[in-house]
Each structure stands twice: as structure tokens, then as C-alpha cells.
Amino acid sequence: MLGNTFGRIFRITTCGESYGKGRGSGLAVIVDGVPPGLRITRDVIQKELDKRRPGIGKFNSPRKETDQCEIFAGIGQDGLTTGAPLGIIIYNVDTKKVHVEQYRSYRDIFRPGHATYSFFLKYGEYQDWCGAGRASGRETVARVAGGAVAKFILAREGIEILAYTKECMGIRCKEMSFEEIKNNYRKNEINCPDLAAAEKMEEKILEIKNQGDTAGGIIEIIAHNVPPGLGEPVFDKINALIAHALCSIGAVKGIEFGAGFGVGKMKGSENNDQPYMTPDGKVRFRTNNAGGILGGITNGEDIVVRIAVKPTPTISIEQISINMRTMKEETLKPITRRDPTLLGRIYAVAEAMMACAILDALYMARAYDALAKLDKKWMRLKGC
Ligand SMILES: Cc1cc2nc3c(=O)[nH]c(=O)nc-3n(C[C@H](O)[C@H](O)[C@H](O)COP(=O)(O)O)c2cc1C
Q1: For 6-55, how does the pLDDT look when each residue is reduced to its tens digit (9 = 90+)?
Q2: Pairing with 68, which of 148, 218, 280, 366 sits 20 to 30 Å away (CA)?
Q3: Can you list the domains of the chain with their CATH numbers?
Q4: For the whole model, what pTM was predicted?
Q5: Mutate to test the pocket of ligand 1, among 117, 209, 337, 342 (most ligand atoms within 8 A of CB)
Q6: Rounded to an integer, what distance in angstroms lies between the CA atom of residue 17 and that of residue 40?
């Protein structure tokens, strides 16, 4: 399996699957590019992992994973990072035989909407049939651990990353400022800061869940207080890096920045964000249709991104599929262990991947700036 690393300077490499064989199976991440002298404790990582943890609410898969992490590398005797790669592991604990046997019972029938068919194409009879292996939502626990490290480093630079549910089954969160969103962050299971909209969303999801079905939606991710000048103008545009980071999460089927697909209905005069000078000599913009990015480079406004999240593929409704051993059509029976929507968990993964992309771009920009030695006037605009 190729491509298990993300990033150029700040890099995360993950391994592990949903149901590895034997005692001690789990997920791990190696984080490269951590500065020395930081007090990155287990609690720093755990706080982020708890946002993504299954089995804690009415919209979460009943799988009871505690998602407790251990930092096994990169921390010295004084409890500070040494500058060596950080190693973090999260063991699987809820891998009961009854569930393994359930997966075994339909191991050759692919789950519509899931990655089983494409995994058969790539790994043949060796594809991991138990709990979807690397294509499982559980794979994302290691990213969240790596992303927690990125968030910690970004916070020291004053950069905050926050994601929330923007829309679910046609019910949309009203427009709110960053501070308003932050004040209502994680106030409900669906993590929608518009509390009235959240109530309607939750009702709708429960109705769909009771039909054995699942619900899709949209997550908005905001990176606040990002300095201008991150991103490279050609292949490594900051929007391209963010798209790589976010679209690598399972179930993400669309992405837009700022006004996004709305630009199709706008005139240039409506879309262009007009600049102004602040009293302290900075350039800011009166609107943010660009989502904080111009020419693939941050402009100092919030980076605003939305991702479309498809409904959980596993459903409790009978479906027609194909048995890959017999190559004949077969009925796939209803499956009970699943999330009725991914929205209440995937936001934590989106925050983690956004943090990894931005921190990596920050490293690149700072390295370039150190050698480019531009006139102070330009460095001041970048907050350096
Ligand atoms: C946090 C998270 C949890 C997920 N939980 C489930 C789940 O319980 N059941 C399921 O069928 N898919 C789940 N998924 C979605 C699948 O992983 C994903 O749909 C699958 O890998 C196919 O990839 P694709 O949807 O990108 O094509 C989850 C994804 C994420 C990010």
C-alpha cells in the first residue's frame, strides 16, 4: 500500500487498521518536524481524540473504542519534545469475536458505497475484509493524533483551526462570525453552532436513522489568524495542499473555498474583495469571497473551506451487491454497527488535516523567507 505519508517538512505517517490480528492491534502515527522543548503531553493529544471518539452519543457508531493514546517516542525525561519524531499509538479495544464473525459472514460481498470493491481490485483476496481495514473511519484516529501536534504548534503562532457542521440534509447553519461559532463550538452532538438549526438537524438524522438509513452534510473549516504569504504560486498553492489534506479523508466528496461554487452566480464586482489599510499599516479585505487565498497564497484573512461529506455507506437496509468470489449478484443483509451520519465526528479529522497542511506551508514559507531576505516593508506585511 503506497501513500501513507502527508506533508513535506511537517509530516505525518500513519499505519494500522480497524481490526488488526492479535493482541496489541491499533493505529499509530509518526510525526516528523516537531520542534524541541515543547510540552506536548498525552492530554494535548487525548483532547482532540475525544472529539472523534465513537460510541458516545446517539449519532455515533455503537463501537465502544476508548481511543486512549500513548506517546511512545520523541519525549525526553523532562517531559519535553527532544526534536526527534513523535510516535503515538492508539490500541483497538472493541474488536469482539461476534463482530469479526459478522464481517466474515459477508467478507466476499462488497459493501456498496464503501471501498471494498476498489480494495478487491488492488489487493485481490488479501484485501482486509474485517471492518474495512485502512478504508475504515477508524484510520482517521491516527491523523487526529498527528493533527493535535500540528494544532499545538500552530497555537503557539496564534493560529486557530475550527470546524463545524454547516449543513445537514438541506438544513443550513446561519452565517455567524468566528467568535460566535467559537462560543457555540461543540454545544450539541452534531456540532452546529446555530443551536436552532442543530435541533432540526438532529431531529432529521434520528428520523433517517430509524429508517435504517444515513445522512450526509457539509462541514466548514476555518483557519483563523493565518499570516499572509503561505503557499507557493504554482503546483503547491495553499488551496491545493488543503484540498489534498481534506480530500484524503474518506467520505469527502466535494470541496470549496470562500464563495466556492457560489461564484457561478456572481459578477466580478460582487466577487472581488476590496482591500483597505489598517491603522497599523496592514492590508486587510472588506469581504472574504476568496476564502483567505489569492493566487494560491494566503492574504491574511481567515481561510474558509467547506467539504461535502457523503452519508455513511453502511446502512441497515438490504442492498443488492456482488460476491467477488463467485462473481454473482447477492443480497447484502442490513448492517447494524455504523454512524447514522459522519458529521458529528469527521469535523475533528478535518481540523487535524487542515492543521497539518497549514503548518507544513508555514514551515516552507518561513524557510523561504529566511533565504529570500526581502525588504523589511514586505516582511512587515507578513507579520515577520
Ligand atoms: C470519522 C469517520 C467515520 C466513519 N465511519 C464509518 C462507518 O461507521 N461506516 C461506514 O460505512 N463508513 C464510515 N466512514 C466512511 C468510510 O470510511 C468511507 O466512506 C470509505 O472509506 C469509502 O471511501 P469514499 O467514501 O471516500 O469513497 C467513516 C469515515 C470517517 C472519516
Answers
A1: 999 999 999 999 887 777 789 999 999 999 999 999 999 999 999 988 66
A2: 218
A3: 5-381 (3.60.150.10)
A4: 0.95
A5: 342
A6: 25
